């Protein structure tokens, strides 16, 4: 078994939170070896970590710092964080370590200088993290309920709004991406979720898949909603995209929407344990090409289907596995998105996204929100 060392803040690093189930804003030290797990915690956090974390042993950083100081006196060396870590490593008889790809370079160099051998492991660092437990699936689904409630509240604003010229007004207020995004965020906070970078992109803005959108929402043009909040309580994400038009969609946009929906339904039908994400992605891409929707650079801008079909969702919004151009075998218990899209500035943009749970002979859709294009 690998000796895994992590030094990070669990607020920003999902691996150390997954391993410890302890949430703290400042970096701390996690070690797993021989079936045992350890935390080295500051005086500020040590008692809380003993009460809340899921590791076997919570140790005082101060105690180990004192041990390191005693060793430093003998060797005339400095007392650094890595010197403190080294005391624990020596106690456990460890000389080889596995660290994540984002392990701090400064710490890695210091450990190697002390004679430790470091192996860098790509994601997933913890293989089990990709396979969700029933509790984890429930946490993701609960976050998804927040998404669907918030999106429906935004759709209700659009339903009740009025078109004047090419703009949309709600109770006399000009609807903008910023206004609707704020309403979505407030609704999700009421449901115990927080969101960042929520996409509400209209028209040409929507042709850039990660453009969050800005300015007035326009009638008769596609509006992409891509909403992916995190639960404050569980730290698990959810993810959903819908594309709508307030008013009347052009025939070209209707055809584009129907094609993306067909591609998404095809992708969902192919998700199962043992399926290769690359095959699913390529089959959707082939469908789009056969419908006449080519992908490439036109006048210096990408058009067509130029992103992956899906990604894992959990403690990170993008995590293992992927459904894209790379080989990736899906496994039972993974939660993935299926979100094909087509983007053409002269027609419009459409992306439709659901989250599904990979099962032995298919998948379970964790998304229940309906799919429709026009809001009259």
Can you describe this structure?
A hairpin with a 2-residue loop joins strand 2 and strand 3 (36-41). The mean pLDDT is 97. Helix content is 33%, strand content 26%. The chain has helices spanning 14-20, 46-52, 61-75, 81-91, 105-113, 134-160, 177-190, 251-270, 277-290, and strands at 4-8, 28-33, 36-41, 57-60, 96-100, 117-121, 162-164, 167-170, 173-174, 193-194, 199-202, 222-227, 230-231, 240-246, 296-298, 301-303, 310-312, 319-323, 335-338, 341-344, 348-351, 354-359, 362-365, 374-375. It is elongated, with a radius of gyration of 24 Å. It has 376 residues and is α+β, with helices and mostly antiparallel strands. The chain has 2 domains: 4-125, Creatine Amidinohydrolase, Chain A, domain 1 (3-Layer(aba) Sandwich), CATH 3.40.350.10; 130-375, Alpha-Beta Complex (Creatine Amidinohydrolase), CATH 3.90.230.10. It is built from 9 helices and 24 strands. A 4-stranded mixed β-sheet has the order 1-2-3-4. The protein has a 4-stranded mixed β-sheet with strand order 11-12-14-24, with helices on one face. Strands 7-8-9 form a 3-stranded antiparallel β-sheet, with helices on one face. Helix 6 (134-160) packs across helix 7 and helix 8 packs antiparallel against helix 9.
Describe the protein's topology:
Blueprint: E1 4-8, H1 14-20, E2 28-33, E3 36-41, H2 46-52, E4 57-60, H3 61-75, H4 81-91, E5 96-100, H5 105-113, E6 117-121, H6 134-160, E7 162-164, E8 167-170, E9 173-174, H7 177-190, E10 193-194, E11 199-202, E12 222-227, E13 230-231, E14 240-246, H8 251-270, H9 277-290, E15 296-298, E16 301-303, E17 310-312, E18 319-323, E19 335-338, E20 341-344, E21 348-351, E22 354-359, E23 362-365, E24 374-375
Parallel strand pairs: 3-4, 5-6, 14-24
Antiparallel strand pairs: 1-2, 2-3, 7-8, 8-9, 10-13, 11-12, 12-14, 15-16, 17-18, 19-22, 20-21, 22-23
């Amino acid at each position: 078994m690998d000796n895994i060392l992590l030094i990070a803040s669990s607020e920003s690093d999902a691996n150390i939170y997954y391993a410890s189930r302890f949430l703290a804003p400042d970096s701390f030290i996690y070690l797993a070896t021989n079936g045992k797990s350890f935390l080295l915690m500051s005086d500020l956090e040590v008692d809380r970590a003993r009460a809340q974390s899921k590791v076997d042993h919570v140790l005082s950083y101060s105690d180990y710092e004192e041990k390191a100081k005693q060793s430093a006196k003998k060797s005339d060396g400095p007392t650094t964080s890595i010197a403190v870590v080294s005391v624990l490593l020596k106690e456990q008889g460890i000389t080889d370590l596995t660290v994540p790809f984002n392990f701090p370079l400064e710490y890695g160099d210091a450990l190697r200088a002390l004679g430790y051998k470091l192996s860098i492991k790509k994601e997933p660092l913890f293989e089990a993290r990709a396979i969700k437990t029933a509790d984890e699936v429930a946490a993701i689904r609960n976050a998804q309920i927040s998404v669907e409630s918030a999106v429906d509240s935004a759709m209700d604003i659009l339903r009740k709004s009025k078109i004047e010229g090419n703009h949309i007004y709600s109770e006399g207020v000009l609807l903008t991406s910023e206004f609707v995004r704020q309403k979505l965020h407030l609704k999700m906070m009421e449901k115990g979720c927080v969101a960042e970078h929520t996409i509400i992109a209209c028209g040409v803005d929507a042709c850039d898949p990660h453009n969050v959108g800005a300015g007035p929402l326009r009638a008769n043009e596609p509006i992409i909603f891509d909403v992916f909040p995190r639960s404050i309580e569980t730290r698990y994400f959810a993810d959903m995209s819908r594309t709508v038009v307030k008013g009347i969609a052009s025939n070209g946009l209707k055809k584009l929407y129907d094609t993306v929906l067909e591609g998404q339904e095809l992708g969902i039908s192919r998700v199962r344990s043992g399926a290769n994400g690359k095959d699913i992605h390529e089959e959707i891409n082939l469908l789009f090409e056969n419908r006449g929707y080519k992908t490439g650079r036109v006048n210096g801008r990408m058009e067509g289907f130029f992103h992956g079909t899906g990604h894992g969702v959990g403690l990170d919004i993008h995590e293992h596995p992927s459904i894209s151009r790379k080989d990736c075998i899906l496994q039972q218990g993974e939660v993935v998105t299926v979100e094909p899209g087509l983007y053409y500035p002269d027609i419009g943009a459409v992306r439709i996204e659901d989250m599904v749970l990979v099962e032995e002979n298919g998948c379970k859709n964790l998304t229940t929100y309906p799919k429709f294009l026009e809001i009259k």
